[in-house]
Amino acid sequence: MASSNAFGWAATDSSGHLSPFHFTRRENEADDVTLKILYCGVCHSDLHTVKNDWGFTTYPVVPGHEIAGIVTKVGSNVTKFKEGDRVGVGVIVDSCKECESCQQDLESYCPKPVFTYNAPYKGTRTQGGYSNFVVVHQRYVLQFPGNLPLDAGAPLLCAGITVYSPMKYYGMTEPGKHLGVAGLGGLGHVAIKFGKAFGLKVTVISSSPSKEAEAIDLLRADSFLLSSDPEKMKAATGTMDYIIDTISAVHSLVSLFGLLKLNGKLVTVGLPSKPLQLPIFPLVMGRKLIGGSNFGGLKETQEMLDFCGKHNITANIELIKMDEINTAMERLSKADVKYRFVIDVANSLSSSNI
Q1: Exposed/middle/buried for 239, CB within 10 Å: 0-12, 13-18, 19+?
Q2: Which end of the chain is more exposed for a tag (fewer CB within 10 A), N or C?
């Protein structure tokens, strides 16, 4: 298969340190779209991958699956995109296209997904958005609404769809209902914005008292609940219709169940490194539901982007240069970001620094 030279920043071992890296991309084929990468969000999954926290990283690896850029080339079969379009690429770049999930536009649940980086694909391995360009099958490319900025819109391709999808699937969108958002980070801060756009009352649930001001004043949540305060948690018993749990650390579920009303729903999207204890008694006695959710399929992700365009929803970001990525990763490991790093790829990645 023909290929083109590309460059980016890669980790070469489990230290996770990223450095300049030359590699090859496949040529644009009939169903492909090539895009110049302008911005790429820095997801917590990137940090886990470069450090091999999950045990399946193959080095060298170029991370990045919150990619936003401009179309520079389209294949002969491509009808949805043209040169100059503002587009994005999220967590996957291919799937089997034949299974029940793919047939239902739920490619994220395909048993044979091809992730945007660190995945075997057509005799090589995928490399992500910390790089100058990418070639992707048209099915896995998304159109950005004209009013949505690409830098602050890039994190929506992972963080955004990861909370939008379960809110839609589990019916957590009824105006006037009460939504609890557990955890205030990259996922949680976008969940607040979706909740407000759906007309929900939104309460942020956090163990950090320092986050109350930002939850209320910056993100416009309706209220803040300090989960480390037993009295406040007791007072909030049975007050919430839904909770979306974005916490990635090991934590108690029983305390969250207690906040739910009869028939309440708790949906978890965080990925703690160790199993959580699931107490059955409060589920049974309150006819409560616990569910999980992956990121959404391509059709739903496009729907989410269009929704964000309509409601002017973007991520709160800190824009960084490519050569600041190692410092950003270190800060991310300490949750020292509000609320998503985004790499200004096109303006800081050039052949001169490779």
Answers
A1: middle
A2: N
